[in-house]
Design a protein that fits this description.
globular, 5-stranded parallel beta sheet, 2 domains, single chain, about 60% helix, transferase, 5 strands, Serine Threonine Protein Phosphatase 5, Tetratricopeptide repeat, Rossmann fold
Length: about 525
């Protein structure tokens, strides 16, 4: 190896270990310019990119490193985590299993494989992996917290709380453990944990942004529970600043305006012969925190239906097509020139995904909330499917978005102003779809469902082509794993406490109400 390259690698590693990630990234890029096959640079650049949140770059470099250093378990471990972060759960499983096979006594690897199985809604395999981790290390933080998170997904909330409290007692993975505990419990008075959380937020210890954010998420939730809205909002804003990258509302508005222009009545009328005849999909969509998980649980309790959860298919397809990027004439041409065989291939691939969930079910739910952006394609492909738009009071939806740590891709929830503007843009797109898509969009209003559970559930099931079954009223008894932030709420009967969260707090949410404009509640 060139001595100059070797020295540059060492300098870059020094910056990386000291936390100067941007400098390290730039230096590793220079190493790869001089020596593209350098295994250390690819591995280290993958680590640095992962720490910086550049998941695509991390995957690219780690895949090279995995080929060059196939016997190094840490390479496969980190590649697996990056792939899981990107939503490639199948690829992540392969990489994490490889890491475990190379280092079978590494407790963290088993626990992270448990996280992967939990994300894939394979509860039995997830539990086995966590228990293997805890057998190797009874105080393994990933295993303790992971077991708690698993218990939440299958509805064992009390057991979950015990696992989170054990992790806290062992002082392991404290930011995540506190954040999970705060979501699993409802606090009536100030708990001892709040002082511990506050102390950690102010201890001056350098932590990765997501960990520091988790402490603020936890404090914000507890303060809101005990009625201290001001302190809760302070912590939530600090959490969001650490958790989300900047958001450009104007760029999003331009992208949606482009979609409304391209996907007009003529677009759909000229593609009426591309339809697949399947009625298996039940598409459930709307903004996060609008009731999509609740609706899915009601449908999937039916004997002829299965829960697919948040299927990533159309989200990945949206990125592959380029619809997440800046509008352009080239993109418009790409969209308008899609050939019939491409539509048919996409429909076939999607139905294969549904069959992998449950081949025997007549209906399979797909509750990816942001599929509302892909209704143009879904309605062309599957006009016989059920389309359920979940709608909740704009103010309540936005307040819930502001107080839950969604993935960084949801950075529109950064501030009250950005989430309010985002909601208005989403609403304008849904109004456009109502006028042009060649399918019946069933809008289910959360507040109406809460007030009239039986009648609204009957209409919902009828829209999905399902006869009534009384068991759908007891959705909270479902054994289907729930991996979203609604996993605790859907384990109990419908409740009214989430209605009108803005009432009496208008002064705290003035920026949000102003941003919502005509969609804000009348006060």
């Amino acid at each position: 190896m060139n001595p100059g390259v070797t020295q540059l690698v060492q300098e870059a590693l020094s910056h990386q270990h000291a936390g100067r990630i941007p400098i390290a990234l730039n230096m590793f890029e220079e190493v790869l310019r001089l020596d593209p096959r350098n295994p250390q640079a690819n591995f280290s650049l993958g680590i640095a990119a992962y720490q910086e949140g550049k998941i695509g770059l991390a995957i690219e470099r780690l895949q090279i490193a995995a080929r060059k250093a196939a016997k190094h378990p840490q390479v496969h471990q980190l590649l697996g985590l990056a792939l899981m972060n990107a939503g490639d759960l199948e690829g992540a499983q392969s990489s994490l299993k490889k890491a475990v096979s190379l280092a079978p006594k590494e407790a963290d690897f088993h626990a992270q494989l448990g996280d992967l199985y939990r994300a894939r809604r394979q509860a039995v395999l997830s539990r086995q992996s966590y228990l293997r981790a805890l057998k190797l290390d009874p105080e393994n933080g990933y295993g303790l917290v992971g077991m708690g998170q698993l218990e939440v997904t299958i509805g064992n909330i009390d057991a979950a709380i015990e696992w989170f409290e054990k992790a806290i007692a062992c002082k392991k993975e404290l930011p995540t453990a506190f954040q999970c505990l705060s979501l699993a419990k409802t606090f009536k008075e100030k708990p001892a944990e709040l002082d511990q959380i506050e102390a950690l937020t102010n201890d001056g210890v350098p932590r990765p942004g997501p960990e520091q954010a988790n402490l603020h998420w936890a404090a914000g939730k507890i303060y809101h529970d005990i009625g201290d809205t001001s302190r809760g909002l302070e912590h939530y804003q600090k959490a969001r600043t650490l958790h989300y990258p900047p958001f450009d509302p104007a760029a999003y508005e331009d992208r949606i305006a482009f979609m409304k222009d391209v996907f007009n009545e003529e677009f759909f009328s000229s593609r009426a012969d591309l339809a697949n005849t399947s009625d298996k999909p039940v598409f459930i969509f709307g903004l996060p925190r609008s009731g999509t998980t609740l609706v899915e649980q009601i449908v999937s309790c039916h004997s002829r239906a299965s829960s697919g959860g948040e299927i990533q298919f159309f989200r990945h397809l949206q990125e592959d097509i380029g619809l997440k990027g800046k509008p352009s004439a080239a993109l418009e041409n790409r969209l308008k020139s899609m050939e019939p065989k491409e539509f048919k291939r996409i429909a076939r691939k999607y139905l294969e995904v549904l069959d992998s969930v449950d081949r025997r079910a007549d209906r399979v739910t797909d509750k990816m909330p942001h599929n509302y952006e892909m209704l143009w394609l879904m309605s062309v492909l599957f006009p016989k499917a059920a389309f359920v738009h979940c709608y909740r009071s704009p103010a309540d939806t936005c307040i819930s978005l502001l107080s839950h740590p969604l993935s960084p891709a949801h950075n529109y929830a950064l501030t009250q102003d950005t989430v309010g503007r985002y909601y208005r843009t989403y609403a304008s797109l849904m109004e456009h779809w109502e006028n042009v898509v060649p399918v019946n969009l069933h809008t289910l209003t959360y507040e109406t469902l809460v007030d009239n559970q039986r009648s609204e559930s009957e209409v919902l099931l009828s829209h999905a082509g399902l006869d009534w079954e009384d068991g759908c009223l007891e959705f909270y008894k479902s054994e289907s794993p729930v991996t979203t932030f609604s996993n605790t709420q859907v384990r109990r009967p419908i409740f009214r406490s989430s209605l009108g969260r803005w009432q009496g707090k208008e002064a705290h949410y003035r920026d949000l109400l102003d941003a919502l404009g005509p969609l804000a509640p009348q006060v």
